[in-house]
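Q: Can I borrow your eye for a moment on a structure tokenisation matter? Would you mind producing a protein record, from residues through to fold? Write it directly below this note and I will take it from there.
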Amino acid sequence: MTTATITPVPRQSGRPAGAVAAGATAVGADPRPARPVGNALRAVKVFAGAVVSVVILGEYSN
């Protein structure tokens, strides 16, 4: 098991508490369309990869 220390970044004056930093926004202003079939297939792919790595390869931790 690993541990990580996360220190909070001090708030800059002049910016409200919930403001997002410049450059941390999405590329486009339009929302992306929902793709439920693609998302389901991606979830199956990730789950199958995890099953293969644990059952066949015997990996259970990083």
The chain has one helix and no strands.
